[in-house]
């Protein structure tokens, strides 16, 4: 059975806040959606909710990440769907998943590269993919629409599109999906901290999930801001992404 773990961690948003509320909101919105997926023609599998991992708010980000990592080491048992929090959680989830499962590639779907060297510190939502590459992870970032000061273009990835994504996926046996909700177009998913136009459609995510079948070791869904979700539409979409993610992980 797939485990679900929430990480309501948020320290480093530079602009708009609220992602720490996402795990609770996504679970709540699950009550409003059907269990059947028309995209995969099957029902959402049963899952085991292992709750949320909390840390003291007055600690610095690195100490909080260390505490989250310790708790994840105790809690992770197998394939896991993580609910963020801001993108900083990747510095806990992904290294601990490697300890458990060995090598895998990281497929990173995001409007941003997240490869600053320092962004209000070395450990923040805007530096994560750089830190992971420094740790030896292979990260492919697809669909990014902006490049920040001092960020480099990654070896694997595609600006404004999904070019090379299929080849990237085919090159690896095991894949971990790091999904930032700002990958979606802000016209239908505005509840994110740093929206970028020219985003992707829901069906693009479904097509990508289909290519990942049988390879996924884990998925994290990050950067949904319920505080900006004035119609609650994005909460429902997040719950549907949760359902489709569980199905893809289950296969
Ligand atoms: Mn982003």
Describe the structure.
- There is one protein chain.
- The protein has helices spanning 22-29, 61-75, 90-101, 128-134, 165-170, 202-211, 233-250; strands spanning 2-7, 36-37, 42-43, 47-52, 80-84, 105-109, 138-144, 156-159, 175-180, 216-222.
- The protein has 251 residues and is of the alpha/beta class.
- It has one domain: 3-Layer(aba) Sandwich (Arginase, Chain A), CATH 3.40.800.10.
- The protein has an eight-stranded parallel sheet, with helices on both faces. It has a two-stranded antiparallel ribbon with strand order 2-3.
- α6 links the parallel β9 and β10.
- α2 runs parallel beside α3 (90-101).
- The longest helix has 18 residues, at 233-250.
- It is globular and about 45 Å long.
- Manganese (II) ion binds at residues 110-112, 180, 182, 194, 223.
- Manganese (II) ion (MN) is lined by residues 110-112, 180, 182, 194, 223.
What series of H and E elements makes up the topology? EHEEEHEHEHEEHEHEH
Widest beta sheet: strand line-up: 4-1-5-10-9-6-7-8
Number of strands: 10
Main beta sheet: 8 strands, parallel
Strand content: 15-25%
The CATH architecture designation is 3-Layer(aba) Sandwich
Structural domain tally: 1
**Mass-distribution shape:** globular
